[in-house]
Amino acid sequence: MTSTTTPPAHDSRHFRDVLGRFPTGVAVVTALDESGTPVGMAVGSFGSVSLDPPLVEFMPARSSSTYPAIARAGRFCVSILGADQEDVCRTMATKGADKFAEIDWHPAPSGAPIIAGALAWIDCTTVQEHEAGDHLIVIGQVEQLSELRPTTPLVFFRGGYGGFSAPSLVAAPERDLIEPIRLAGLARHAMEQLAQEVRAEVIAVGDVAGHTVSLAVADSPGGDYVPTVVGYRTPFVFPVGSVFIAWDEAATDAWLPAAEPARGQGIAALDRVRRRGWAIAIGDVHYDQLERSVSRLFAHDEQASIATAMQRLDGGLFDLELERGATYDVRMLMAPVFGADGGVALGLMLRGFTQHLDSTEILAIADTLTATADEVSRAIGGGAHVPPPSRGGVEEVGRG
Ligand SMILES: Cc1cc2nc3c(=O)[nH]c(=O)nc-3n(C[C@H](O)[C@H](O)[C@H](O)COP(=O)(O)O)c2cc1C
Description:
- The protein has 10 helices and 20 strands.
- The termini are far apart.
- 29% of the residues lie in helices and 28% in strands.
- The protein has helices at 12-19, 67-73, 86-92, 175-198, 242-245, 249-255, 262-276, 285-296, 303-312, 359-379, and strands at 24-25, 27-32, 38-43, 47-50, 55-58, 75-80, 105-107, 113-115, 120-132, 135-147, 155-157, 160-162, 201-208, 211-218, 233-235, 279-282, 327-328, 330-338, 344-351, 357-358.
- It is α+β, with helices and mostly antiparallel strands and 400 residues long.
- The strands form 5 sheets. The protein has a 7-stranded antiparallel sheet. Strands 15-14-13-19-18-16 form a 6-stranded antiparallel sheet.
- The structure holds flavin mononucleotide (FMN).
- The site of flavin mononucleotide (FMN) has 17 residues, from strand 3 and helix 3.
- Residues 380-400 are annotated as: Disordered.
- It comes from Nocardioides humi.
- Belongs to the non-flavoprotein flavin reductase family.
């Protein structure tokens, strides 16, 4: 046994430091005051208390100037904040601010505001209030509740804001994954900005032992797609993975189909990827089948059906020539991130587009994507994409 001297429990700095080691989610408790004006406060002390009857609690400070109005209303609504709502939290934690001036909301059944963009809401009637030191413990009976957005929560930890990743969404740190994961970590910030800008899911894809592996994912705000599972691998099989093959001569032969005309199609596809600086895939029934198999992978062992679906993919729908003015069901765009050795270190992939895109829109998105990929290349010590010198002749819709 070691005996150490610790500051006393009533040392408030020490109390906050130690208790700050316990992470909390962040919620906003709202109500309408007597004049029908919305009031609200950010709380980390929200929690569930009882299932039968359904009770929840939160703990307002006695010094709160907002809580008395919530108490008088006798009803309140709790909105659970998402990882992208730090600004909402800051506003709702500012004493004296006009908290609802810039916040969208709609009424819960009780009339209390549900904060737009929240992950879920819980509408309650106040049933108990207990005194507890300089705080109160308020118990609410849950009247109605609902989930709103399938995204990750805002987390408060040691005085700072952060996010959450489920263990099942973190790739296993196998030796061959450590460096690609480190690089994907460096791309994180740029990926999040890109997801906001183009409103699609952004995935950092690595080349690990002959497989493409999703290493990190940035969510699109309001995206309507099944999220990519981090750690998921697919083998490099034509026509998938052209971004990695296009700059890797040694791997090209094994990737290209042996038989014509698929072989010629593959060579032309790689040429286009090198010239444009990005890859593209258009959807069809076989692509749908592949996506379904992939999304079921973690429920059942779907490796076999993934292999079958990949074999059925139509090479003609990957890295194809785009026709000016034509509209496409784009399923993925990917640009290379170059490492210090000049090889492709990562692919930055976009997916989850909510509508069909015409060739002009595709080129604009591809430009934003390649600009981000170039920025990440420079950040990890590599160079930007340089299109190979033109061999004259055909000019197509595209970069370079
Ligand atoms: C992450 C976070 C968690 C908070 N949790 C609580 C809480 O549980 N109880 C509380 O009284 N205040 C909490 N606050 C502070 C209040 O949001 C804030 O002081 C208060 O609402 C603003 O003053 P007002 O109530 O006088 O308007 C928290 C603030 C933040 C940023």
